[in-house]
């Protein structure tokens, strides 16, 4: 629907033209809303699959989201530079930089703890609740920032015609509602205890081995 809005009413997307700005909302919605939400749901949707497979998929989706969001940021800053517009003056831009920075830090820490080999199991266990909390928080902040940007774009482009129920405004309002519903649906699935990944027998055995090793005992010392 974001692509339909930009294509029908904003002229589409082209990097080397005035349409470069349109790459920003499309990339941010795809990256920091859609793909980030999908990445959060990996452990729910594939809760019975091998842990390593779901972990790699979770990490890859976050990488794709980060790269696409970075393209969106480059598009808006480059567009502002070419047009001589000011940067980072609106609430939307402040929230956007905050969200992207938090998302990047969250990815780095998550990679270091859960994908990079050698991280102590005890540290992983202690950090996991914080990782889940910050992941959900950053996702909700991303949805809220997208709604702020959508509202800002409509006020800039439509002005007084926004209150006259212009078709573009109606379509964009529906898009905003869908973004909010998507965020709520992801949060609901994440908080459902019966959809959480069950602990597999081999994972429990591996956890006990890591625990005994980090505590200085060997599995066969008793």
TrEMBL record:
Residues 1-191 form the Cytochrome b561 domain. It holds the Pfam family Cytochrom_B561. PANTHER family: CYTOCHROME B561-RELATED, TRANSMEMBRANE ASCORBATE-DEPENDENT REDUCTASE CYB561. It comes from Macaca fascicularis (Crab-eating macaque). It comes from the Eukaryota. It is found in: Cytoplasmic vesicle, Secretory vesicle, Chromaffin granule membrane. It is a multi-pass membrane protein. The keyword Nucleus does not apply. One of its GO terms (cellular component) is chromaffin granule membrane. Keywords: Cytoplasmic vesicle, Electron transport, Heme, Iron, Membrane, Metal-binding, Translocase, Transmembrane, Transmembrane helix, Transport. The keyword Transmembrane helix applies. This is Transmembrane ascorbate-dependent reductase CYB561. One of its GO terms (molecular function) is metal ion binding. Its cofactor is heme b.
